[in-house]
């Protein structure tokens, strides 16, 4: 018997004696919530508010990880969307999902800072930031905080590239409205495809953002959560 073989029973004995560490969730999620990527194969996630690539220009309060959290019914419905799109070589990329109320409060503070306009050319070139709430591009209580709203786009699974939707995420402008007239036929077709598939699986669109969908039968229609994304 080699020395390695002699060590095996000894090592196995140590494993029995050592205390087992329980598996712990990286975040203590409320009942009814989970991470979307645990249930949706080939899901791409790029949470814009976890990075500086957003209209505020810095990471947003409450975003501590690049993981999309949603209610279980929203995840189940989105999994069906992904399954249907995968059959055509497409998938979804999530820009935002559950959003803590503290993140919305960060948006509110930013909106009152008249000196913070560095991102205006890219995100709100034709709208004063003081009017973003009145024009309903932003809300003081967001449907995202209820856990069943998702911002997303279409991607080509073969290349991983986003499809051309005619405007960037969080461009607060009429060109981002789903029915915007100033679109190429391909861009209009991509928006229509996303909208049709999402609506077929129980989501309702938002008339000012092509990327924004809320589960019609959401489980927490009047509850705004504030646990962090981590």
From TrEMBL:
<keyword id="KW-0378">Hydrolase</keyword>
<feature type="active site" description="Proton donor/acceptor">
    <location>
        <position position="209"/>
    </location>
</feature>
<dbReference type="GO" id="GO:0006508">
    <property type="term" value="P:proteolysis"/>
</dbReference>
<dbReference type="GO" id="GO:0071555">
    <property type="term" value="P:cell wall organization"/>
</dbReference>
<keyword id="KW-0645">Protease</keyword>
<dbReference type="Pfam" id="PF01427">
    <property type="entry name" value="Peptidase_M15"/>
</dbReference>
<dbReference type="GO" id="GO:0008237">
    <property type="term" value="F:metallopeptidase activity"/>
</dbReference>
<keyword id="KW-0961">Cell wall biogenesis/degradation</keyword>
<feature type="binding site">
    <location>
        <position position="212"/>
    </location>
    <ligand>
        <name>Zn(2+)</name>
    </ligand>
</feature>
<feature type="binding site">
    <location>
        <position position="144"/>
    </location>
    <ligand>
        <name>Zn(2+)</name>
    </ligand>
</feature>
<dbReference type="GO" id="GO:0008270">
    <property type="term" value="F:zinc ion binding"/>
</dbReference>
<feature type="site" description="Transition state stabilizer">
    <location>
        <position position="99"/>
    </location>
</feature>
<keyword id="KW-0862">Zinc</keyword>
<dbReference type="InterPro" id="IPR009045">
    <property type="entry name" value="Zn_M74/Hedgehog-like"/>
</dbReference>
<keyword id="KW-0224">Dipeptidase</keyword>
<dbReference type="InterPro" id="IPR000755">
    <property type="entry name" value="A_A_dipeptidase"/>
</dbReference>
<comment type="similarity">
    <text>Belongs to the peptidase M15D family.</text>
</comment>
<feature type="binding site">
    <location>
        <position position="151"/>
    </location>
    <ligand>
        <name>Zn(2+)</name>
    </ligand>
</feature>
<keyword id="KW-0479">Metal-binding</keyword>
<comment type="function">
    <text>Catalyzes hydrolysis of the D-alanyl-D-alanine dipeptide.</text>
</comment>
<protein>
    <recommendedName>
        <fullName>D-alanyl-D-alanine dipeptidase</fullName>
        <ecNumber>3.4.13.22</ecNumber>
    </recommendedName>
</protein>
<keyword id="KW-0482">Metalloprotease</keyword>
<dbReference type="GO" id="GO:0160237">
    <property type="term" value="F:D-Ala-D-Ala dipeptidase activity"/>
</dbReference>
């Amino acid at each position: 018997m080699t020395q390695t073989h002699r060590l095996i029973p000894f090592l196995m004995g140590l494993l029995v004696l050592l205390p087992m560490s329980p598996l712990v969730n990286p975040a203590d999620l409320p009942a009814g919530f989970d991470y979307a990527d645990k249930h949706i194969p080939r899901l791409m996630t790029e949470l814009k508010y976890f990075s500086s690539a957003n209209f505020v220009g810095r990471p947003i309060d409450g975003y501590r990880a690049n993981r999309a959290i949603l209610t279980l019914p929203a995840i189940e419905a989105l999994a069906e969307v992904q399954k249907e799109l995968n059959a055509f070589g497409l998938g979804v990329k999530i820009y935002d999902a559950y959003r803590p109320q503290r993140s919305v409060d960060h948006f509110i503070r930013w909106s009152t800072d008249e000196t913070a306009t560095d991102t205006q050319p890219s995100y709100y070139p034709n709208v004063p930031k003081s009017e973003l709430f009145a024009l309903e591009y932003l809300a003081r209580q967001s449907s995202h905080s209820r856990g069943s709203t998702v911002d997303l786009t279409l991607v080509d699974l073969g290349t991983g590239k986003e499809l051309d939707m005619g405007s960037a995420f969080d461009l607060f402008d009429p060109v981002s409205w789903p029915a915007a007239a100033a679109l190429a036929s391909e861009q209009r077709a991509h928006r229509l495809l996303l909208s049709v598939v999402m609506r077929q699986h129980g989501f309702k669109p938002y008339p000012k953002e092509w990327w924004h969908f809320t589960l019609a039968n959401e489980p927490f229609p009047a509850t705004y959560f504030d646990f962090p994304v981590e």
